[in-house]
Write a structure and sequence with these properties.
The complex is a heterodimer of chains A (134) and B (194). Chain A is mostly helical. Helices cover 53% and strands 9% of the residues of chain A. The chains are: A mainly alpha (134), B mainly alpha (194). Chains A and B meet through helix 1 and helix 2 of A and helix 2, helix 3, helix 5, helix 6 and helix 7 of B.
Chain lengths: 134, 194
């Protein structure tokens, strides 16, 4: 037990190993400088990650609002796409051939001799006609 | 006379609310104590300085996650000890010592006088010799044992506080101290009274 006490007493002497007084005065300034430099030199990935994380630290009501409006936007987009599909004339026409439905692509209009129909504009466009020809 | 200094909890709350000056106050308050803790584990002033900067940076970055389940004092000490142990593992027992920064008050300390002379001329040693021997002995301890010795023997922390900082039982703290003291007795035999 005496040895135990002697060890404790010896180790307590290490308390005297201290830096000079001014060290702690300068320490805060050094720390602040370093913090500022850390802020300036933060990697882009870290900034992006912090911003991503901060999205989930929002209060509960706006978060709920955000999720529900996102869901509503998706629902609306799906609805509009379906509605548009129903309304748009399909490029596919179904032809019945021997009881089997065959999908065939609609082709451009053709004349009797097989050449493609060409539409020719009148020589004088309507817009060129005099507006006041009484 | 009542102290006008705000308690740690208030400074922590203000820091969490974004008041950087409150954290500066915590740095001023804790740096001497944490310096001692880290210095006695690393035995190097340069390493302690760098490590202390890292410790406060980490604390500042993580303070929003501090929920007050333990005291801020315990929380800071836990960060400091963990970072010091990780640093020592990387440094791999490189022996560096600062022998020129001892407070002159040690020369008047009765324990120092007793350890260095005690009327026996054969035991007379000077300050730097004792310090060197103490540091060498500390560096021979494992990181875990050194942490316990630093907190208990040098910093005077109670067993219960050390167990909270290291997240181990008080029994483990006592057992580590026992084995560390036994090792130190062998290394410091010449300074121990018989």
């Amino acid at each position: 037990m005496d040895n135990e006490d002697s060890i404790t007493k010896l180790l307590r002497l290490k308390r005297y190993e201290q830096p000079p007084e001014e060290y702690f005065q300068n320490f805060l300034a050094e720390f602040q400088t370093r913090q500022r430099s850390e802020v300036i030199h933060r990697p882009l990935l870290q900034i992006a990650w912090d911003r991503f994380c901060s999205m989930f630290v929002m209060p509960p009501i706006p978060k709920l609002l955000m999720v529900s409006s996102f869901a509503a936007a998706i629902f609306a987009a799906v609805f509009v796409m379906n509605w548009a599909d129903d309304d748009t004339p399909s490029n596919l026409t179904l032809a019945s051939s021997g009881g089997v439905q065959v999908a065939a692509k609609a082709r451009p209009a053709r004349s009797k001799n097989g050449s493609a129909v060409q539409y020719v504009l009148p020589a004088r466009p309507v817009s060129y006609a005099s507006a006041r020809s009484f | 006379m009542e102290s006008l200094e705000p308690p740690d909890d208030e400074l922590v709350r203000r820091t969490q609310a974004g008041d950087a000056r409150a954290f500066d106050e915590l740095v001023v308050r804790f740096s001497p104590r944490l310096y001692g803790l880290v210095y006695h584990m690393t035995s190097s002033h340069e390493d302690t300085n760098d490590l202390l900067q890292d410790i406060f940076s980490k604390a500042y970055r993580s303070i929003k996650g501090f929920q007050g389940k333990s005291s801020f004092y315990t929380w800071m000490h836990t960060i400091a000890v963990n970072m010091a142990i990780n640093f020592l593992k990387k440094r791999n027992r490189r022996k560096t010592m600062s022998l020129d920064d001892v407070d002159n008050g040690i020369l008047n300390d009765p324990d120092f006088i007793e350890a260095t002379s005690n009327g026996d001329p054969s035991r007379e040693v000077n300050l730097s010799e004792l310090q060197k021997k103490l540091n060498e002995s500390m560096l021979k301890l494992s990181h875990d044992h050194r942490a316990v010795v630093t907190m208990f023997d040098i910093q005077g922390m109670p067993h219960a506080e050390i167990s909270k900082v290291l997240k181990i039982s008080e029994g483990t703290v006592r057992s580590r101290l026992f084995y560390a003291h036994r090792q130190l007795q062998n290394y410091l035999q010449e300074f121990i009274n018989k």
